[in-house]
Amino acid sequence: MAMANRTNRLSISNEIDLVRARQEVRVQAQAIGLSLVDQTRITTAVSELIRNMLKYAGGGTLEMEIVRNGIRNGLRITCRDEGPGIPNVDLAMKEGYSTSNGLGLGLPGAKRLMDEFNIQSEVGKGTRVTIAKWR
Amino acid sequence: MEKIPIIKVGDTLLVSIQSDLQDQVATTMQSDLLRKIEQTAARGVIIDISVVDIVDSFLGRVLADTASMARLMNAVVVVVGIQPSVAITLIELGLELKQIPTALNVESGLHLLREKIEQQQNGAGSNGFGPEEERARNGHG
Asked: FRET label pair with B4: which of A19, B22, B28, B112, CA 20 to 30 Å apart?
């Protein structure tokens, strides 16, 4: 498929980028035939991840990639920032934990919405979160 | 920056939230709405989100806060038109928004508002607190 492996990269530095990123993710999710609920799940998860990125790192980049596994299509999204990093990832993944008076739903909530969720963070270097939804 | 119009119909205010909302537009709506409640002494507010295709933790919180703030100003907020995919996503995300009264559409939202406002006037439901909050306030349960 011509669209397979095409990577889209967006740079994120403010809330206008957030709105645009959500629109882009929705378009890609639609293009690979995700159901309306799955489109909404991945768009919402991305929204939460970008909010974290803006709040803690002031921004970053978002990569969208259409992936294939046999006959299955999926949408994989990587959020990368060069912020302060997360000292304790296990704690950050805990329900209701927030260092910023937030609801603490962001990371665990995004994880629940996705088929795949991977987070890597290094203090002083930044954070990378990869999520995917399969059709 | 775009603004969300607030329409007054009798003693009710109607707010239709558009999709692809910027955060600032949502928070401006919140303060505009409270000002309008003050100016018009509206008793009820319908917030229609039927065209909103995602509600994340930020927008969820704005809606919940708006309902609580309006309650302090003696107005009842009902959120209407939550899409099925939005309802599923909100619960999975962990946002139950239990404190916000909801209805399927504007029409049933108006009915619910009537009921809630009447309850308040008859003193039955006291200040629009749900039974749970009411128990907590009375120190029971």
From this structure: B112
